[in-house]
Design brief:
The protein is an alpha+beta fold. It contains two helices and four strands, in the order ββααββ.
Length: 75
């Protein structure tokens, strides 16, 4: 087999044919990242733009799993 640089002709042919065949595939049903569900991030985007919760009179913000203390000016 004759070499072109370090790549054989067969390897070059294999790469070119793979690229040519992949260009023929329609991407309607192809899942490129192999995750089910299509990777919908619209819920996360809506939560990211939601208004920040307001702390109570003691400066505590309560979440379902934890609490967060906020500092006031001068503290």
């Amino acid at each position: 087999m004759q070499r072109i640089g370090k790549i054989s002709r067969f390897g070059l042919f294999l790469c070119v044919s793979t690229l040519a065949l992949s260009a023929c595939v329609s991407d309607n049903g192809l899942d490129w990242d192999l995750r089910a569900g299509g990777g919908d991030t619209s819920d996360a985007a809506r939560q990211a733009t939601a208004a920040a919760p307001t702390p109570d009179t003691n400066g505590i913000i309560s979440y379902p799993d934890y609490q967060l203390a906020t500092a006031r000016r001068g503290e």
